[in-house]
Design goal:
372 residues; alpha+beta; six-stranded mixed sheet; six-stranded antiparallel barrel; 8 helices; 21 strands
């Protein structure tokens, strides 16, 4: 677990309940106002609990290409992406964001990220990656003590970056560096967001600089609501031990379907080309008539049939109570759903705009043609 963030000592910062075990601020007094600022102006959130791994070395790209799910042999200096580590059956072990700059690939990932070792043993992500180095010319190191992540969200992000004399990458996942701050443009949450990998020793300095320039302090509670609205999963919350990338919209975003030579690739290619995943991640609108909301892991029912699992549950400033859920593919968008059993149940409905395109891949079309 990352040490307690010094941003928790800033005025108005409220820590998460002990059950959440969070090292960063939960909110700053008004989570709905924080969401509105991120939607209409600009807000900054402390995500310094993320783990950071540095991958320098002559063969950094060719080695990573063999280990992660993304195609990175040609990842340009000044570019980033998302990637996964999968187990041998194609199930998601870890999710990470990449930034390639000045001869180093920086990976930032969830706190406590894990991966399955070559003998099936659970390992920390860094330990697993080191296990896979063999004779490659790379030099992995834990860089969590070197870098901390701050995220800016909102339509005024470019103006704010200019005000604090930081570059504004144009393309999604574009990366630039100035004042020893790595700036990565992100396509979520919302349409205007950047991640800043700042020197950890300067975390409070940069927080103050950004807030004095006009960014509203925002806690993880508001950030999670915007993430859910953007239909972006969080590993370990919106996924379980059976999740494959196709179920949570990580195909193309974080998993390449054509490249080979990475663990779990056969499952990725087979499901993409000739099959469909058994579940899909959907946005659920929850009945707001009760103050009791579902918990992550609660079962979703259609009648008496269990059809899914609840992931992130949030209160959105416009949409009200919503959740991401893994739902069986056979469930139609108009189906009446119930979360939980007994007296503590919540009515739920599927947001039709969250249903992914179900067009069969080319391989499936060819197989259907052969059958008749």
């Amino acid at each position: 677990m990352t040490d307690r963030s010094p941003i928790l000592d800033q005025q108005g910062a409220v820590a998460a309940p002990e059950s959440a075990a969070s090292a960063v601020p939960w909110h700053f007094g008004d989570p709905f106002a924080e969401q509105r600022s991120a939607a209409r102006k600009v807000a900054v959130v402390d995500r310094s609990d993320r783990e950071v791994i540095a991958v320098p070395g002559e063969e950094r790209l060719s080695w990573l290409h063999l280990v992660i799910s993304q195609h990175v042999t040609d990842l340009a200096d000044g570019a980033g992406t998302e990637a996964l580590v999968l187990d041998g059956q194609g199930r998601v072990d870890a999710h990470m964001l990449l930034a390639h700059v000045d001869g180093t690939v920086w990976l930032d990932t969830e706190p406590g990220a894990r991966a399955t070792g070559v003998r099936g043993e659970p390992l920390g992500l860094l330990e697993y990656l080191r296990q896979m180095v063999f004779w490659s010319k790379v030099e992995l190191r834990d860089a969590t003590a070197e870098r901390a992540v701050l995220t800016l969200v909102g339509p005024e992000v470019p103006d704010l970056l200019t005000t604090v004399d930081l570059p504004v990458p144009v393309a999604s996942y574009g990366v630039a560096v100035k004042h020893d701050v790595i700036v990565r443009r992100m396509p979520w949450p919302g349409h205007d967001a950047v991640d800043l990998l700042v020197p950890r020793a300067e975390l409070t300095t940069w927080w103050t600089r950004l807030t004095e320039a006009g960014a509203r302090p925002m806690g993880s509670l508001a950030f999670e609501a915007l993430r859910v609205e953007s239909l972006r999963p969080r590993l370990g919350v919106d996924t379980d031990e059976k999740t494959i990338p196709h179920e949570v919209n990580w195909i193309h975003v974080a998993a390449h379907v054509a490249k080979g030579c990475y663990r779990g690739q056969e499952t990725v290619a087979k499901v993409h080309n000739v099959g469909r995943p058994p579940r899909r991640m959907l946005l659920l609108h929850l009945d707001g008539a009760t103050d009791v909301l579902p918990d992550t892991g609660d079962v979703v029912y259609a009648g008496e049939r269990a059809v899914g699992r609840i992931g992130s549950v949030v209160n959105h400033h416009e949409l009200g109570p919503i959740a991401l859920a893994l739902i069986k593919r056979s469930v139609e968008p108009g189906t009446d759903l119930v979360v939980g059993t007994g007296e503590e149940t919540t009515q739920a409905s599927i947001d039709p705009d969250s249903v992914p395109d179900d067009t069969p891949a080319l391989g499936r079309k060819a197989a259907q043609g052969l059958r008749g």
